């Protein structure tokens, strides 16, 4: 059954659409805001999203942008109460299947939905096709070329292509940019890419970690100070704004700045002038600012932790950085890149990955994102004795992840089966408890079956049989 998510802050419209589509054989869920919609999308997959253009907390343009980056396998249709050809063209260029104006006519919308789902399914089948040897070689060539130029590999997925499109779009401008995404997604590398594709590429690129700044040091780091301007100021210091003059200043984890420093930053950004602490001389600035955050700055504004006026100064253009787990086979492109890098660092010649390692990489959720993958590859290359990275060179949380997931899914299946019974089924309940105990022990001993059998007080053959019963061998 095809699944559809309806996003509309008018509850009645959402309810009517939901009932109509359910009667026509679709599984339907509804959301009344962008934020609640993305909570639902994070929990389950959908074939299609129907989104009203005007929402209380966002608009259809932003929803479409995020879905095409984070959930490229999901089709999108935008619904609105007015007709605007220019907007329709823009949305379709951004990846929407279609744009429908209210009032909604049942036959029309049903026909459009079916066509959208068929079109998206065809696109997904294209994505699922195995790479030809030529395509695989192309990926290796991309990685090698990027490595040779000490550049950053972005990838070839739909999310990566959209990221590249946005970088190419904003780089030649002078816009301030906010990079939004989880820690470790490569925000500084993307900031460098924007700088290198801009007219400022021959000027300085200065990166500053706002998360490590104390309130006392922040002013000096940002604006500099004159010798003797305060106790301990033994020499004149040039601040980061002045160092980046003519080029780009990248402020990482900007949400960690104190409210007082935010006020001082606002003045500098507005007036494009900086004054060192202890000096009366103002220095003219020509600096492009790129900031990064893994926090929701809108929430921080509502809680009084971040200045709204400063946010709007920074947010002339926003780029969402998709986490590694949403990048599909891009993971292996990154892995190839970090393999080459680790070989160079360690003076080794490890050539590739075993099929089990590749499966582990594509299954594991990578909470630390690109940064975690890089560290895993450095460790794996160090531990690899031959020319192929094997599973034993991976950290246990990665090498055992697919096994743990399979076991948990099997237990969930048993539990679901037991829950469907009208009466209490003691046999299923006992089986579920048994599997949960086995899983816990296996996790504790890092899937050492001999130790697990000893702790469970059963022989290895019995343990193997119980694991085989749920297809975990």
Automatic annotation (TrEMBL):
Gene3D superfamilies: 1.10.8.60, 3.40.50.2300, Homeodomain-like, P-loop containing nucleotide triphosphate hydrolases. It holds the Pfam family AAA_lid_14. GO terms for molecular function: ATP binding; sequence-specific DNA binding. Residues 153-382 form the Sigma-54 factor interaction domain. The keyword ATP-binding applies. The keyword Zinc-finger does not apply. Keywords: ATP-binding, DNA-binding, Nucleotide-binding, Phosphoprotein, Transcription, Transcription regulation. GO terms for biological process: phosphorelay signal transduction system; regulation of DNA-templated transcription. The modification 4-aspartylphosphate is found at residue 52. SMART domains: AAA, REC. Residues 3-117 form the Response regulatory domain. SUPFAM superfamilies: CheY-like, Homeodomain-like, P-loop containing nucleoside triphosphate hydrolases. This is Sigma-54-dependent Fis family transcriptional regulator. It comes from Pedobacter psychrophilus. The lineage of its organism: Bacteria, Pseudomonadati, Bacteroidota, Sphingobacteriia, Sphingobacteriales.
């Amino acid at each position: 059954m095809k699944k559809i998510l309806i996003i509309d802050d008018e509850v009645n419209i959402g309810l009517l659409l939901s009932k109509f589509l359910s009667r026509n054989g679709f599984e339907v869920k509804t959301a009344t805001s962008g934020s609640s919609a993305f909570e639902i999308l994070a929990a389950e997959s959908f074939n299609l999203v129907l989104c009203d253009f005007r929402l209380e907390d966002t608009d259809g343009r932003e929803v479409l942008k995020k879905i095409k980056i984070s959930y490229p396998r999901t089709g999108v249709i935008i619904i609105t109460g007015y007709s605007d050809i220019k907007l329709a063209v823009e949305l379709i260029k951004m990846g929407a299947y279609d744009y429908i104006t209210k009032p909604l006519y049942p036959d029309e919308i049903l026909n459009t939905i079916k066509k959208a789902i068929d079109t998206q399914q065809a696109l997904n089948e294209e994505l699922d096709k195995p790479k030809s040897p030529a395509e695989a070689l192309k990926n290796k060539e991309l990685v090698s070329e990027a490595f040779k130029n000490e550049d950053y590999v972005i990838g070839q997925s739909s999310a990566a292509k959209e990221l590249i499109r946005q970088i190419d779009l904003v780089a030649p401008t002078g816009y301030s940019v906010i990079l939004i995404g989880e820690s470790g997604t490569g925000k500084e590398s993307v900031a460098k890419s924007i700088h290198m594709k801009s007219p400022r590429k021959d000027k300085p690129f200065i990166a500053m970690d706002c998360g490590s700044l104390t309130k006392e040091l922040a002013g000096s780091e940002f604006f500099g100070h004159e010798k003797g301007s305060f106790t301990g100021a033994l020499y004149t210091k040039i601040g980061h704004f002045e160092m980046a003059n003519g080029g780009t200043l990248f402020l990482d984890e900007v949400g960690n700045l104190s409210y007082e420093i935010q006020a001082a930053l606002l003045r500098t950004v507005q007036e494009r002038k900086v004054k060192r602490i202890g000096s009366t001389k103002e220095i003219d600035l020509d600096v492009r600012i790129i900031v990064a955050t893994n926090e929701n700055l809108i929430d921080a504004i509502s809680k009084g932790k971040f200045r709204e006026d400063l946010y709007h100064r920074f947010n002339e253009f926003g780029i969402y950085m998709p986490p590694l787990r949403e990048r599909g086979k891009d993971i292996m492109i990154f892995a190839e890149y970090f393999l080459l890098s680790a070989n160079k660092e360690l003076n080794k010649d490890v050539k590739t990955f075993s099929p089990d390692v590749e499966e582990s990489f594509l299954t594991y959720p990578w909470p630390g994102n690109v940064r975690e993958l890089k560290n895993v590859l450095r460790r794996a290359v160090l531990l690899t004795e031959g020319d192929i990275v094997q599973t034993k060179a991976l950290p246990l949380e990665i090498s055992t992840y697919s096994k743990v997931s399979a076991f948990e899914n099997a237990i969930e299946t048993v539990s679901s089966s037991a829950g469907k019974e009208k009466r209490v089924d003691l046999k299923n309940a006992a089986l579920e408890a048994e599997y949960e105990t086995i899983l816990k022990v296996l996790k504790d001993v890092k899937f050492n079956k001999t130790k697990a059998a000893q702790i469970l007080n059963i022989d290895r053959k019995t343990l193997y049989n119980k694991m085989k019963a749920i297809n975990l061998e």
